[in-house]
Amino acid sequence: MKPLIFLITITMLLLLTGFYISPSFIVAVFGVFTSLLLLLLTLVFGPYFIELMSTDNRPPVVGPILNQLIHFEKLYDYMTSIAKQHSTFRFIRPTHSEVYTADPQNVEYILRTNFVNYTKGEYNTCIMKDLFGNGIFTVDGAKWRHQRKLASFEFSTKVLRDFSSIIFKSNTAKLVKHISLLAAAGNAMDLQDLLMKSTLDSMFKVGFGFDLDTLSGLDEASNQFMKAFDDSNALVYWRFMDLLWKVKRYLSIGSETTLKDNIRIIDSFVYRLIHNKREQMKNENHNRNKEDILSRFLMESENDPVNMNDKYLRDISLSFVIAGKDTSANTLTWFFYMLCKQPLVQEKVAQEVKKVTEADDGTSIEDFGFKLTELVLDKMHYLHAAISETLRLYPAVPLDSKSAQKDDVLPDGFKIKKGDGVGYIPYPMGRMTYIWGDDAEEFRPERWLDVKGVFRPESPFKFTAFQGGPRICLGKEFAYRQMKILAAYLVYFFKFKLVDEGKDATYRTMFTLHMDEGLHLYAFLR
User: Fold this and answer.
1) According to the model, what pLDDT value does residue 80 have?
2) I want to staple 430 with a disulfide (CB 3.0 to 4.6 A). Which of 147, 276, 392, 398 is the partner?
3) If DSSP codes are grouped into helix, strand and coil, which group holds residue 507?
4) What's 252's domain CATH number?
């Protein structure tokens, strides 16, 4: 709708100025404007009609890129409707095709079998770089391998695992106390907002060693950072649909001005964080047993100060923020939404938590944390299944794009050309009957359990919430542990009910599956 509004606005301005400016000038301006519009339409629709006539065994063409722009507010549902007809399909850009697939064989081929041919690519990197820089989500080659190696080491350490569990429990206990006050007063809450704040607090403590305490609402700088980061996430994603974003960035107008202002807030916050951490480490005489991730990266930077400069550390830090805050908080938001929609599932989860922790009515918040050991968490098969079922239908990253480096042929026989965007689509995949059966669109945690009630994992190329192959999410177990701790605390102490049970939740179209307008519900003490 945005381009249409722009055209109407320009037309109205031309008509109004016609009362004050000579008709010949207006005609000249209108002629230039019409020529530019025709040029733009030719650029958009010319390649589309050419590709429609192609007989080269390419994936079926479902429209020009303009179709994605028209359906942007419901983009993932729109792509789901297409995937039900074509498991592999493409949209046409002026410069290349954007191929999408929901076929698990193709997904495995892209993510593992021919991994080297499907990189983030220059096109995707150019769009994302202003926000994510050279973080692990935007780079390929040596920089990706370097960050992957560092992150792999950190996530495998028992020190980080134990430290993160303590932080998750501590911050969740704060969240429980906060919700208890709202429940006692009978007040509604936006659980998505509370989860975002809680996971951000945990991520900053685990990742950077600082207590933000955004849940209290007292730290204005961290609140500004969180809002700027979420808005930037959406604005950068909009670039994939906006054919004129580079022009707008050059002229510093519209959404690009807003993005630039947001990134300024983000940079100021993160650089100050890095500076404070470096000063803190100097005062502590380089304590080599630091538990937070940033401290370890700063120690690593001492060996390579040129390449691992503050800009590089900033980019790595933001990657951890989006991986640790958005994915967990968004998944838990949809998880509690589904528990409210299905009270029987909510009760099953609560009963399992109570049974395996052996908690009783007299168990305090602090005592519950002591009972929530690693061994106990591992026994929560139904909770694990319910979270996985949430990720199947509401994946934290609903769409992921790569770029083909060479001509290729996918396992389903469709040809890929060098420069094509090639993406797999977790959100539609979770709704495909040809992948999950006739009940694919139903929320049914039992599909993940064997006859003994033990969790049974699926192939990462069928259940793509954590990617697969060499780029499979290193923080998968980290994320499950955080989500299970948060979920176990909340369902043990509260029952949840939607404020408006007749309203269906929708998402905000961005890199992560953020619930639009939040999750408004009531909590009741059990």
Assistant:
1) 98
2) 392
3) strand
4) 1.10.630.10
Measured torsion, CA atoms of residues 388, 328, 493, 190, in degrees rounded to the nearest 10: -120
Cα–Cα dist 208/374, whole Å: 23
What are the DSSP calls for 244-263, one per residue? THHHHHHHT-THHHHHHHHH
**Domain count across the chain:** 1
Length of the chain: 526
Answer left, alpha or beta for residue 96, where phi above 0 means left and psi between -120 and 50 means alpha: beta
Residues in contact with 117: Cβ distance below 8 Å, sequence separation at least 6, in sequence order:
404, 405, 406, 408
Q: Is residue 12 part of a domain?
A: no
Residue 38 lies in a domain: no
Residue showing tokens 């700063």? 298
Residue partners of 324: CB distance under 8 A and separation at least 6: 199, 202, 203, 206, 207, 475, 478, 479, 482
- Reported as a single tens digit per residue, the pLDDT across 303-318 is 888 878 889 889 888 8
Point out which residues pair with 495 in neighbouring strands.
Answer: 524
Find where tokens 């769409």 sit. 399
Domain holding 186, by residue range, is 54-525
Look-up of token digits 């905000």:
508
352/386 Cα distance (integer angstroms): 12
Instruction: Give 92's pLDDT tier (boundaries 50, 70, 90).
Output: very high
pLDDT tens digits, residue range 227-236?
A: 898 899 999 9
In a domain, 456, yes or no: yes
Mean pLDDT of 222-251: 91
Verdict on whether the full-model pTM lies above 0.85:
yes
pLDDT of residue 215: 78
Residue 96 lies in a domain: yes
Q: Please give the Cα distance from 349 to 487 (Å, whole number).
A: 9
The pLDDT confidence band at residue 436, using thresholds 50, 70 and 90, is: very high
